[in-house]
């Protein structure tokens, strides 16, 4: 019996080949990660190779942890003697030992983004930077990019550019590096850069080459240039290097990953053994056929026909929905249906292209009390930008709310520091006025600089204007005006650099939630809106709960597998992404690889959903299904369910009835209903708040029940129970 008995022939061939360069090139679910895992166990237990000589690197902490656990299952304790980690934690370990060669002390500190910003803030103060549009966050992200592209301070200096901020950034970069060095600190980019520098020191390189004689890299298609150089240098002496990957799953090009690294492996190592795995163990044949067909549309795709012994299994469902709400409801229905047939929540995963798409799903799942967890991202209403805007709206609705006022008093940055805030607070309590009122009396508050006084006055004016607007205007008008007046988007852009786009999308998604409600109930007031979100954003504590649905972006799903996958929002402009992508063949191909990754996560059942129309920044836009759906082979699709076929007239929403004018004609039946109004605790057209479904409008009253229109459809509520669940808004 050998450990390798549990591998197929090809996998075994790869796992046995311990000396020399080896490339395992294979499609999703073919057992690449499994092969590495077994290979490590085999080397240690059956080949007598010291575990200390083994280095295996993977992409995420979660993947590294899983790999360690699996090796441990195979061979026990010895697993922990091998170095199985991410590039970053590998770097940290080595730098703790050899960092002194680069002038670092063994107990250097690691600077996270917040620390980095703090350093830059200090430097910008020294430099007296007056340009408000240049925030510390932007400078931090520029510096990280420079570092990761191996542009040193002196390289950057040679660029000698003319753009306005160049000189400032250059000086920040120089001083920032100085400060970190003085403080014996490294940021995340430094870890990789310094690890690479270590390898330029001959005696260190020699030691490391001697120590790590056997190297393995998983997800090699997503390594960037520095990572590539690190691996190449350490492996140069013994050349026992095994890399594993799939060109068709390269999805981090936008972050500097270089797909050439895997494509050129055979050039780098002319004697490399190349093993191709073709049997997929993860998915049914229907799912696999779909994945194979979609990726074929990429010109750069390498032909790798994956096959499986598994039966065809369930066909793939492509579901066209009226809008995002229907998409959510459909998915929840399917989950409930399957749960009733014996599945657990943990077997379902909802995938989407961008984080902002999670909002509708979260709201839906909360309403139906279905436990869920958002992976690799925060729950929608917990995100900083959402909390900021909600805090503003709360203050506009209720200026006495000091907690929320404190949150936004210096967001966007107005140079109102903690000390100033303290003075304002003191003044307010001494003169017995609210904090908000104190903003308007900035000029009288002792000890404030004139800059702060002006800032307070500006903020006070903006808030007052918005309060006034909220009395006459709609919530979405207040929202738009708020974003514009405080310059919230430019704040996000300058604070978060490359990350800003996703945050702006989140804010736009919040606007969508408002417009949706406004369409459901007439004359939505700010108070009603805020009450409604306090309902939908209440998060149940998942502590101790292990059975929940997973929600994540496709990027975060890399390397993982799930029984049932819902791939959502499969529409042009979402997936593939923005228009830019449509005209850029390379980016389109990266999106298609992402689609391949998504499809191949599914083991048993795959759904693709798309909506015919969707709110996009408060407007109902007609949406076209993604080209990726057209690329699916028809023979593995469940009959494509179209909106028209599915919805009998009786199921049309009240909005549709309105459009046809149906509602405007008073029929005899209507008269009968109207007579009954006296029995109902709520009047026709009245706004009500339901304990679960939030804000709605009474659209029907009959002898026994009320029909209430909520954002996600009309619900009937028994008159007898009406007051239990409904209150007047
Ligand atoms: P990805 O490209 O998505 O990272 P992968 O190629 O790394 O996929 P694995 O995750 O290693 O694939 O394997 C996919 C699934 O197939 C796992 O559940 C794994 O245990 C199973 N599997 C792989 N090879 C075999 C085998 N020879 N016998 C039984 N199960 C296998
Ligand atoms: Mg894998």
From TrEMBL:
Bilayer-crossing regions: none
BP terms from Gene Ontology: recombinational repair
Keywords, ordered alphabetically: ATP-binding, Coiled coil, DNA-binding, Helicase, Hydrolase, Isomerase, Nucleotide-binding
Annotated coiled-coil segments of the chain: 500-527
Annotated Gene3D superfamilies: 1.10.10.160, P-loop containing nucleotide triphosphate hydrolases (3.40.50.300), PCRA, domain 4 (1.10.486.10)
Domain UvrD-like helicase ATP-binding residues, every copy: 5-284
GO cellular component term, pick one: DNA helicase complex
Residues that hold ATP according to the record: 26-33
Native organism: Cetobacterium somerae ATCC BAA-474
Protein name: DNA 3'-5' helicase
GO MF annotations in UniProt: 3'-5' DNA helicase activity; ATP binding; ATP hydrolysis activity; DNA binding
EC assignment: 5.6.2.4
The reaction(s) this protein catalyses: ATP + H2O = ADP + phosphate + H(+); Couples ATP hydrolysis with the unwinding of duplex DNA by translocating in the 3'-5' direction
Any matching Pfam family: UvrD_C
Record family assignment: Belongs to the helicase family. UvrD subfamily.
Class of enzymatic activity (EC top level): isomerase
InterPro entries: DExx_box_DNA_helicase_dom_sf, DNA_helicase_UvrD-like_C, DNA_helicase_UvrD/REP, P-loop_NTPase, UvrD-like_ATP-bd
Residues covered by the UvrD-like helicase C-terminal domain: 285-559
């Amino acid at each position: 019996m050998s450990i390798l008995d549990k591998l197929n022939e090809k996998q075994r061939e790869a796992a046995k080949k311990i000396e020399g360069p080896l490339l395992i090139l294979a499609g999703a679910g073919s057992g690449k990660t499994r092969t590495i895992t077994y290979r490590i166990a085999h080397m240690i237990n059956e080949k007598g190779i010291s575990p200390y000589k083994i280095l295996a690197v993977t992409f995420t902490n979660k993947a590294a942890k899983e790999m360690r656990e699996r090796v441990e299952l195979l061979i026990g304790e010895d697993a922990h003697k091998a170095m199985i980690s991410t590039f970053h934690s590998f770097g940290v370990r080595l730098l703790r030992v050899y960092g002194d060669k680069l002038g670092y002390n063994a107990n250097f500190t690691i600077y996270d983004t917040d620390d980095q910003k703090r350093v830059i803030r200090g430097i910008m103060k020294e430099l007296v930077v007056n340009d408000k549009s240049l925030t510390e966050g932007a400078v931090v992200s520029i510096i990280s990019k420079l570092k990761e592209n191996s542009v040193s301070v002196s390289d950057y200096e040679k660029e000698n550019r003319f753009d306005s901020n160049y000189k400032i950034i250059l000086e920040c970069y120089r001083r920032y590096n100085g400060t970190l060095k003085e403080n014996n600190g490294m940021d995340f980019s430094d870890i990789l850069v310094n690890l690479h520098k270590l390898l330029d020191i001959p005696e260190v390189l020699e030691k490391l080459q001697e120590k790590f004689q056997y190297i393995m890299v998983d997800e090699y298609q997503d390594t960037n240039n520095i990572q590539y150089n690190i691996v190449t240098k350490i492996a140069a002496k013994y050349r026992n290097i095994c890399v594993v990957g799939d060109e068709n799953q390269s999805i981090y090009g936008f972050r500097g990953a270089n797909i050439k690294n895997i494509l050129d492996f055979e050039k780098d190592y002319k004697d490399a053994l190349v093993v191709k795995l073709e049997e997929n163990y993860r998915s049914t044949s229907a799912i696999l056929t779909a994945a194979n067909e979609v990726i074929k549309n990429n010109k750069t795709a390498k032909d790798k026909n994956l096959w499986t012994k598994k039966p065809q299994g369930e066909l793939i469902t492509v579901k066209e929905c009226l809008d995002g709400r229907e998409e959510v409801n459909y998915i929840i229905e399917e989950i409930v249906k399957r749960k009733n047939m014996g599945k657990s929540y943990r077997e379902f995963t909802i995938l989407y292209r961008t984080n902002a798409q999670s909002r509708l799903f979260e709201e839906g799942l909360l309403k139906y009390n279905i436990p869920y967890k958002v992976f690799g991202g925060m729950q929608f209403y917990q995100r900083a930008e959402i909390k900021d805007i909600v805090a503003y709206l709360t203050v506009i609705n209720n200026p006495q709310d000091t907690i929320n006022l404190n949150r936004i008093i210096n967001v966007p940055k107005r140079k109102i520091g903690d000390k100033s805030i303290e003075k304002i607070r003191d003044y307010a309590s001494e003169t017995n006025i609210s904090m908000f009122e104190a903003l308007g009396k900035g000029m009288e508050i002792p000890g404030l600089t004139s800059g702060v006084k002006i800032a307070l006055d500006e903020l006070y004016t903006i808030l007052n204007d918005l309060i006034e607007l909220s009395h006459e205007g709609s919530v979405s008008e207040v929202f738009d005006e708020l974003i514009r007046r405080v310059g919230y988007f430019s704040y996000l852009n300058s604070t978060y650099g490359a990350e800003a786009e996703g945050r702006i999308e989140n804010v736009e998604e919040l606007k969508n939630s408002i417009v949706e409600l406004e369409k459901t109930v007439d004359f939505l007031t700010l108070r009603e809106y805020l009450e409604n979100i306090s309902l939908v954003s209440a998060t149940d504590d998942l502590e101790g709960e292990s059975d929940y649905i997973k929600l994540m972006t496709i990027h975060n799903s890399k390397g993982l597998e799930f029984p049932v996958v819902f791939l959502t929002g499969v529409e042009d402009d979402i997936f593939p992404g923005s228009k830019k992508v449509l005209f850029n063949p390379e980016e389109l191909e990266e999106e298609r690889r992402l689609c391949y990754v998504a499809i191949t996560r599914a083991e048993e059942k795959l759904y693709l959903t798309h909506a015919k129309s969707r709110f996009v920044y408060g407007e109902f836009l007609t949406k076209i299904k993604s080209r990726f759906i057209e690329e699916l082979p028809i023979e593995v699709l469940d009959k494509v369910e179209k909106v028209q076929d599915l919805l009998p007239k009786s199921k049309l929403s009240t909005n549709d009835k309105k459009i046809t004018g149906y509602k405007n004609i008073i029929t005899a039946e209507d008269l009968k209903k109207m007579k009954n109004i006296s029995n109902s605790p709520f009047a026709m057209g009245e706004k009500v708040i339901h304990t679960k479904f939030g804000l709605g409008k009474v659209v029907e009253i009959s002898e026994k029940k009320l029909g209430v229109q909520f954002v996600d459809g009309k619900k009937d509520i028994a008159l007898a129970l009406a007051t239990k669940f409904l209150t007047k808004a």
